[in-house]
Design a protein that fits this description.
Elements (H helix, E strand, L loop, with lengths): L2 E7 L5 H17 L4 E7 L4 E3 L5 E3 L2 E2 L8 E5 L10 H12 L3 E5 L2 H7 L7 E3 L5 H7 L4 E3 L3 E4 L2 E4 L4 H14 L1 H10 L16 H5 L4 H12 L7 H7 L4 H12 L3 H19 L4 H7 L5 H12 L3 H6 L1
Parallel strand pairs: 1-2, 1-6, 2-5, 6-7, 7-11, 8-9
Antiparallel strand pairs: 3-4, 10-11
Helix pairs in contact: 1-5, 1-6, 5-6, 11-13
Length: about 300
């Protein structure tokens, strides 16, 4: 019997996350005809527009969901804008009926808001992790490509959807079929779930200095409150002056300036992906004075926090 998948597309969904989930199933059917079937659902039936403007016609409405082994919610920016109790009820009913529920890209927000991710490790797009943690502090997020916790699956989206589907194909039909599917996409390898979504600090900042990599990692993980330059220096066993010399030599930058950029980038993600107020975002990113935050934000991005959110 074919294994049935249903994809619920939220308005503004990630097209690449969705297509990367569908295509492995299509290719698997080339080598093993009838292995998979899939349908597309939307909140009210009819077409759904992705974040790139592409429109996809749904096969059914939420209240017509039935019989799928896997039900994935595919979302994009501002995933909770179209959340409703009707959607939550439909997902809970699918869970009661024995379906495995999944979230692609920011689809995890929908599952968490519906109370369906309790006790699960959650994978979602790296850009949305801070926003998710602010809204659901009781849930643990990971930087991995995807997570599977019993009857719950979460995935970072993008091309990580391919890796997730290859993993599910392996479980259902063995590694040989997954390799055949992978080779059709000209993939050099099948990435395991433990692979991280982002390039490591070494690649992103162009330095392999072990002490600098450790400090930058600390900066990315601690924004509320931010650590002092002295604390960062003591963490790697050097003086503050030695740390500043390391930054100048390898990055032509000061620790405080880089730390500020990291915190402002986080603030932009929170403004664009949550309904937190500007003041709440300011505090979450380690700025005690909203006025100072607004000045630094405008200097970095060319517009005020409020204008950036409206844009």
């Amino acid at each position: 019997m074919p294994e049935d998948y249903c994809f619920i597309l939220m308005p503004g969904f990630s097209a690449i996350g969705f297509i990367s989930a569908i295509e492995p199933l299509r290719v698997a059917n080339r080598f093993r005809p009838g292995a998979y079937r899939w349908t597309v659902a939307s909140l009210e039936g009819g077409p759904v527009v992705a974040s790139n403007g592409m429109s996809v016609d749904a096969d059914m409405r939420l209240d017509q969901l039935a019989g799928a082994a896997y039900v994935f919610v595919v979302a994009g920016f501002n995933p909770l804008a179209h959340y409703s109790q009707a959607l939550a009820r439909a997902l809970r009913q699918q869970a009661r009926d024995g379906a495995t529920l999944g979230g692609v890209d920011t689809g995890a927000f929908i599952l968490a808001q519906a109370g369906l991710l309790g006790g699960c490790r959650v994978a979602l797009h790296w850009e949305a992790r801070d926003a998710f943690s602010e809204r659901f502090p009781q849930l643990e997020t990971t930087p991995e490509l995807f997570e599977a916790s019993g009857a719950r699956i979460t995935c970072a989206g993008g091309t990580a959807s391919i890796d997730l589907m290859l993993d599910l194909i392996t479980q259902a039909h063995g590694a040989e079929l997954a390799i055949q599917v992978s080779e059709q996409f000209v993939l050099g390898r099948i990435r395991p779930r433990k692979d991280h979504q982002r390039m490591q600090v070494v690649s992103r900042y162009g330095t392999s200095n072990r002490k600098l990599v450790q400090v930058i990692t600390e900066m990315e993980q601690h924004s509320e409150p931010p650590l002092t330059t002295l604390e960062l220096a003591e963490g790697i066993g050097v003086t503050r002056r030695q740390l500043e010399r390391l930054f100048r030599a390898h990055l032509n930058e000061t620790p405080s300036n880089l730390y500020l950029r990291i915190r402002l980038d986080k603030a932009q993600h929170l403004l664009r992906q949550t309904d937190m107020s500007v003041t709440e975002v300011s505090v979450a990113c380690g700025f005690e004075l909203p006025s100072y935050f607004a000045r630094r934000y405008k200097a970095r991005f060319g517009k005020s926090p409020r204008d950036d959110r409206r844009g």
